[in-house]
Amino acid sequence: MLQKSKKEEIIKDLEKTIKDSESLVFLNFHGLKVGDETVLRRDLRKEGIGYKVSRKTLLARALKGKAEGEVPELAGEVAIAYSKDEIASPREIFNFQKTHKGILNILGGIFNGKFIGAEKMMEIATIPSREVLLSKLAFLLKSPMARLAIAVNEVAKLRP
């Protein structure tokens, strides 16, 4: 059993983490093997994402008043993934979920200062990265110019 001073220290650490992060994902990691967790932590660390396992009661205390709305139900063994980038933590957890089926479950999270459920967090997780979105935008901007150049070239071929 944890001493009261240790619990207060954990709560303060969780509160600081919540305050400093732009997005936070609540995870149920029941059944996650140590080897898989090591891989998960390493992959998240590469992307600048933190990962902490916490007791639900201590996490609930740390979450009080930190965001608008109701805290989603935190069932099972709970961990949090957090980052300064709003979309990075949900996206990387979602990517890990795809390769390791049935191990991690997204329970919800905090996004833009509001508690959101698992469905909304999954929607956020499927948003492509900034680089992918910029490349799609560049392609969309380039496409009409390429078509115009082809059309002008075809018209030039028709003239004798």
Task: Describe the structure in your own words.
There is one protein chain. With 160 residues, the protein is of the alpha+beta class. The chain folds into two domains: 4-127, Alpha-Beta Plaits, CATH 3.30.70; 129-160. The protein contains six helices and five strands; from the N terminus they run H-E-H-E-H-E-H-E-E-H-H. It has helices at 4-20, 34-46, 56-63, 88-99, 118-125, 130-158, and strands spanning 23-28, 50-53, 78-83, 105-111, 114-117. Strands 2-3-1-4-5 form a five-stranded antiparallel β-sheet, sandwiched between helices. Helix 4 (88-99) crosses helix 5 (118-125).
Can you give keywords for this protein?
160 residues; alpha+beta; Alpha-Beta Plaits; 2 domains; 5-stranded antiparallel β-sheet; 5 strands
Strand order of the largest sheet: 2-3-1-4-5
**CATH class value of the largest domain:** Alpha Beta
Global morphology: elongated
Write down the overall mean pLDDT: 84
Quickly count the helices: 6
Give a quick rundown of the structure:
With 160 residues, the protein is of the alpha+beta class. 54% of the residues lie in helices and 17% in strands.
Helix and strand layout, with pairings?
Layout: H1 4-20, E1 23-28, H2 34-46, E2 50-53, H3 56-63, E3 78-83, H4 88-99, E4 105-111, E5 114-117, H5 118-125, H6 130-158
